From TrEMBL:
Keywords: Cell membrane, Membrane, Transmembrane, Transmembrane helix, Transport. Residues 14-408 form the Major facilitator superfamily (MFS) profile domain. It comes from Fontibacillus panacisegetis. It is found in: Cell membrane. Gene3D superfamilies: MFS general substrate transporter like domains. SUPFAM superfamilies: MFS general substrate transporter. The keyword Lipid biosynthesis does not apply. It comes from the Bacteria. CDD domains: MFS_ExuT_GudP_like. This is Sugar phosphate permease. It is a multi-pass membrane protein. GO terms for cellular component: plasma membrane.
Amino acid sequence: MTTTRFAFKWKYLILVLLFLGWSVGNLDRFAISYAVLGITEDLGLNASSTGIILSSFFAGYALMQLPGGWLADKFGYRKVIITSIILWSIFTILTGIAWSLTSLILVRFLFGLSEGSFFPSASKAITNWFPTNERSRAMSIMLTSASVMGVVTPIAATQVMANNGWRSLFYIVGAIGLGFAVLFIFFLKEKIKQETKPVPVVKQGAVKTAVKGAPLRSILKSAFVWKLFIGYFSIYVVSWGLNSWMPTYMMNVRDLDLASIGYLSAIPAFVGIFAMVISGIVLDKLPRGRELQVAAISAILIAVLLYLMETASSTGMFIAYQCLIIVFQSFVIILIASAALKHLPEESAATANGFINTGAQLAGFLAPTMIGFMVQASGGSYSSAFFLMMAFACVSAVSLMLIFRSNKTSNVAMKEGIVNE
């Protein structure tokens, strides 16, 4: 009984720590989208250069997903998470010191490399502490931090920039990150579990034993995992396309000032706080396989809403459509982020989610750059950018529906975890 109470208390403390860590990571990641308004003025950058700055973080972040997951599976998530927070906080501070386009790109790349191992390691922590039927909710709570920071960052960042300039913003955020690292050193624990039997792996109708020492090989052969990868990449083209370029779009196209941009940008993020939590609860309660249908339909609705958003006649309707996009986007993101935690063995959970999350970060690297080039090539028009995001929302829907069809014909495949179809 004592052990049960201990686990009950600690798993929620672990979740609070993961929430705080992901909050400070997102604080910096979102801050650059607002800081870039001052950076471009200071350094005299064009749209293409701005896109490269926004994308450089994701290049390093994407590269570290698989190594970060492997390190967490090999050495434990505690060491990896603490090291990640310390390093990314240092590079956050160095962002404020950058003096040229080249130095800024290099620092942002190294920042991404430092933060890249947090998500797969945190995924392993959730798998370590939470039972299968609570993992979507746990993941949704951790990811809700992005929505919370989506509310805080626009207001805080624009106010700090207005009073002290963009460099001070990164000094403050970096100091906050180092403070959180101290909390993790004292309170982040790993739950020791008893050895379990090897998990069966389904391959072409036959059951084989998963190779515990080499989960990556099994993961890279899994059609299930690759479909999640494609779905995550596609939906995050939409997410990072909107997050990285909306402040610039609202200033250049909607003719809004910095303060108005800050407050209006906080509205969809505020909606996202509730959408993330509700989506996690709903997805945990849906019958297995049905959640894939819900997420696929959500992705199709996102494509429709992107068209309505781009053609909105007023700023109010523009923000309203963006809020709806955030709601449906939450279902897609939580479904994909928690699918590996529910259907794959724990010893490969961090590596699997690291690989799947690589798709999201590749989208973060490519989307801002592609949109930047499109906007510059079209003389400042954002229509092609919205069309790009609409297309990728549809791709995400297709990938999820393909998983659903496979699940209908082979329930065993979804039940066993790593699947080769």
